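Following the same procedure, backbone shapes were mapped to integers, yielding the entry below.
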Amino acid sequence: MGFGQRAGKFNELGRIQSIKPASNPPLTEVDSYTITSVGQPASVIHARDPIFKPGTETAINTNATFFTPTESYNSNGVPQYSQYVVNANIGSSTLVSQYNQYFTVTDPGVMSTSGAYATDTNGGGATLRPQAQSEPSTFRREGLVQIYLTTSSDADAEVAYSDEGVNWCAIGFDNFFFNLVAETASVKSSYKTFRKYLNSAGTTNFAFAQSTGQYSSNANSFGTGDTTYNTNGIYRSQIEPFFKKNDGTQYYLKTNVTFAGASVSASTSDGGSVTATLDTGGGATPVTNPLGFKSYTEGVDDPIYTATPGSGFLVSLKVDGVAQSISDPTAALSHTFTNISGGHSFEAIFGHKVTTTSGGAGAVGITSTNPQYVATGGSVTVTFDAEPDTVTFNGVSQTVSGTSYTVSNIIEDVTVAATNA
């Protein structure tokens, strides 16, 4: 028996013209086919009659997923359809393809400066010269590329780091020399960039040398550029629109990469630092330049990462994207990656403190958390139990209407004072 029967050019009940394994979409982990039909879409025909796999007597599953067909018409005006089908109920997410691929990874060095001094009479000087704290290196990592057919249009977090778009370290040098005997002075400046080095705290430096009554000289270096590895990713999570199901559900192809081995990707903001230690059998020793991507021995190493406030406060710490509880923003906070495996992240953000005070007759009550901590450039809202007569921001009067006041673009510690007359 056929898949349908003829009933005139425009009364076609539907028949299959061809069915072949789909080769266009990269679906290698699932049975998938492209079916062309006349009169009715393949999904309609399948609901009535079985559709057999090419060269077999095995029918496509009854729960196969049919995607919206494309429609055209032949010279007689009879509709023609091409319909894509996955021989399974794919649900909301299904792995459809995977393969291994090698990616080039750059682990940049860290650049600093060191001072040099001369004390010869009338010839002394202070200079600063670049100094590599760690050398850059490039290596290859094998990644498992996986493609999913999914209803989610959200991209996953990046899985590794690269030098794409990184503003590498640049150092400006200024030298000043004053000959007190000859009453002369000289100024010299230079500028250098280092394409494979990241800026470190030591690139902004100062050196001074003098001989009393003879000369004095000083040198300054100013480091600019990035201090952490770029978070753009070696291989971004890619989302591409796919077909819609017959019921209108939109599907996407999502490509992710998972790297073999163990690693931690660490980042931080100004106002504090991230350090790491690793016990290699002789006690805990510092991990050299822990910022950026660092690889470890899987199932063996237990690296301890620590975020320590410096000039700022620890306002956020995320481990593998999960926010950690911070009980004291002025204290260091650590996390141990025990028997580390797979890829991990450690992200510390430092910022400023917003303190609220109230005073005057019938002092206004503060209903928001006090103090509050916020990342540089962020904002917080201070709320009161009644509208205050006056509000000052670091001593400057503000216009406030109502029981709340929002502090925006915070770049320093802030005091908000509310008073009643």
Q: What stands out?
A: The radius of gyration is 33 Å. The chain is about 0% helix and 50% strand.
